[in-house]
Amino acid sequence: MQTCTCNFWCAILSSTKETLSSWATSSVEEVASTRPGIRSFQLYVYKDRNVVAQLVRRAERAGFKAIALTADTPRLGHREVDIKNRFTLPPFLTWKNFEGLDLGKMDKVVIQMGLCWT
């Protein structure tokens, strides 16, 4: 798993409980295959609930035990440095948890913007 981050490997080595980002470049299956452990899956709430359901089912099948719901991101960030530098993911990295889903729809329009705790 060459695409794993340093933080991920530090968590493995120290037996820390892990939370994997839904936008990670390692899939839930790849992470689950590294060793036994308790893991949670970070998830944004998308307007397309089918996308949410597919991501949750996939994490569950991989043995993840909890969902870390992110509800404070009404839209994707406008990262001026990334825009200035024309940042894109290198071709060898992909958002592995979205493979098989229509990534053309995975933008600020899809994230549920009206969530609140009331």
UniProtKB/TrEMBL annotation:
Pathway: Photosynthesis; photorespiration; glycine from 2-phosphoglycolate: step 2/3. InterPro entries: Aldolase_TIM, FMN-dep_DH, FMN_HAD. Pfam families: FMN_dh. One of its GO terms (cellular component) is peroxisome. Residues 1-118 form the FMN hydroxy acid dehydrogenase domain. The keyword Flavoprotein applies. The keyword Membrane does not apply. Keywords: Flavoprotein, FMN, Glycolate pathway, Oxidoreductase. It catalyses: glycolate + O2 = glyoxylate + H2O2. Its cofactor is FMN. One of its GO terms (molecular function) is (S)-2-hydroxy-acid oxidase activity. One of its GO terms (biological process) is oxidative photosynthetic carbon pathway. This is Peroxisomal (S)-2-hydroxy-acid oxidase. It comes from Senna tora.
